[in-house]
Amino acid sequence: MAISPDLICTIVTTLQSLITVTLIARTRRNSFLRWICVPSITYMAYIEGVLIKMTDHHTYAKVTLSGMPFTVLIQHINLLLIAKVDLAGQPGTNAGKLASAFALLQSTRGIGTPWQVKNIPSHPLVLRAKPPSRGQFIRRQLAIAIWEVLALILVLTSLATHNVQDDDGSYIYGSGREFQLADSSMKQLLGRITVTFLFGFPGSLLFLDAMYRMASLISVAARMTTIASWPPEFGSLADTYTVRGFWGKFWHQNLRWSYTGVSTAITCRILGLPKPSLIERYLNLTIVFILSGLMHVFTNVASGIEGGNTGAMLFFIAQAGAIMFEDAVQHFWAILSRGEKNTAAETPVWQRCVGFMWVFCWLA
């Protein structure tokens, strides 16, 4: 009887996590043993990607899950070699240290740790005004997760019936059309909007948020963590009037700690760029989006998309350019208006409206 690829993948992932958790809990921050184990951890991530490709899951589930090996690998490297988390010299039992190391590995945003990323959304006002009991929190998370799954099913059903052929019979999303606007047909332009704002971002948001809420209710129900350890996964749409606000405040920050750790190591430790400096800031930004692009290409390859869809890499690298453009426009606007750069709370309504239109057109 053939062994399920899912089972093998789970075993490999567990072994990979055990190696990293043990190294964090039992070795010092500069231990050479950490470097020796990195090739093994990297190879396991490769095996996980191959196994995910072998599964018979729905394509959407594959696309969403197959980015995990790359993302988790970067987090392992970040904890072991960049942040150099060292629990070996701290007081406590070995079991306690292993538990703390495992919690760190799972906390991609570093909630409640010295490495907590910025722009973490606050709990909704209703939860802050009257903190819920454990049972109330679990019921709330379960109810929201259920309706998100139902909404996701509706999105996937619509995607399955979506017509991808243009009027001339060509493929609407063909390779090389990513930046063609002037000679695009109306069906192509509408197709971009449909895929981006009906299937792409909403589908990903619903899936990721539902998974996050299910993980939170299981963890809180098992008394492994507290409610405070589970702030919202996504921020407010009110912050999406700039591309920087979309990616840095609204969208999930699960990649921020690990990817920024790698980019900072490259710019400051390897290249020796002064921090803060303009070149360091924007090179960091570019490297983070390159890593995100690589993750999505890896995702596409593991999902069975031939060639990995290089358009994904172009899309994410372009986000860094868009943010640089925004910063330049805001800088020169501040000079022309002879005032300080406005904070989000002070940004005039008309500027926000222009910003929302800009982000809408850019992402589409």
Automatic annotation (TrEMBL):
Keywords: Membrane, Transferase, Transmembrane, Transmembrane helix. The chain crosses the membrane at residues 7-26, 32-52, 142-161, 189-208, 282-305, 311-329. GO terms for biological process: lipid metabolic process. The keyword Methyltransferase does not apply. GO terms for cellular component: membrane. Pfam families: MBOAT_2. PANTHER family: LONG-CHAIN-ALCOHOL O-FATTY-ACYLTRANSFERASE 3-RELATED, WAX SYNTHASE DOMAIN-CONTAINING PROTEIN-RELATED. Belongs to the wax synthase family. This is Wax synthase domain-containing protein. It comes from Aspergillus niger (strain ATCC 1015 / CBS 113.46 / FGSC A1144 / LSHB Ac4 / NCTC 3858a / NRRL 328 / USDA 3528.7).
